Amino acid sequence: MRVAQLGSGTPEIAVVAGVHGDEPCGVRAVERLLDERPTVERPVKLIVANEEALERRVRFVDEDLNRAFPGDPDAKTHEGQLAHRLVEELDGCLTFSMHSTQSHGEPFAIVNGVSETAKAVVPKLPVTAMVETSNFAEGRLFSEIDTIEVECGLQGSETAAQNADRLTRAFLTAVDALPGDTIRSDLPVYRLTDVIRKQDADTYEVFVDNFAEVEAGDPFAAADGDTQVADEPFYPILMSPNGYRDVFGYAAEKLDVLTAPPAAD
Ligand SMILES: [Zn+2]
């Protein structure tokens, strides 16, 4: 784990990259901040989490770090120990953690609850949605640390790396660590309600677009040609044919749209 800091004093803000070793976009954003060393108005902790997995270009070494929290100093796995060290480093910090997916190119935010902090910060980020995943928080970083996760785009893409950079700067501006203004936009909010499992098969297909409502009766995915049909309407989120080993993704409900206040003249 690499830990660095911008500014002096005890940080209450942290930016975390590389929770997953096969998602390099956030690492680029952190390295750029370390190269440029912008003058900050509040100290910021910068962390590259799973360096071993990043070096091997794998999601994890022993187990998924974002299912291993709170971790344990005596854990038998690399990620179990790393989770514990990461929680110690991030104690007291509002944390911004960057990910990328195989399911959706547009950036969106993932939070453990629609808290006042989430409502204040997330609409100021260049994201198209906020997804609340409190039903599936177990083992994730935000079960231990106040965290805003962002999905920056498609895994390994140049666009995801550029998005990670823009998202990080918008986050640091929104929390008054960097100077300047952020643009606030209307933001739909979703809550994950169900896991969409997939059976063991050779080929997987997904027929729907993430964040676009699926109607009851619509076919939405297939495993070896065996089609799954929606019993009731839902919004697919993090859905992809091969992104995860045993699930296609998640079903969500739409909760709300956070509207931007009218712009001042
Ligand atoms: Zn990830």
TrEMBL record:
Entry keywords, A to Z: Hydrolase, Metal-binding, Zinc
A UniProt-annotated Pfam family: AstE_AspA_cat
Protein name (record): Succinylglutamate desuccinylase/aspartoacylase family protein
Residues spanning the signal sequence: none
Cellular component GO terms held in the UniProt record: cytosol
Domain Succinylglutamate desuccinylase/Aspartoacylase catalytic: 11-90
Keyword set includes Mitochondrion: no
Cofactor(s) the protein needs: Zn(2+)
PANTHER family tied to this protein: ASPARTOACYLASE, SUCCINYLGLUTAMATE DESUCCINYLASE
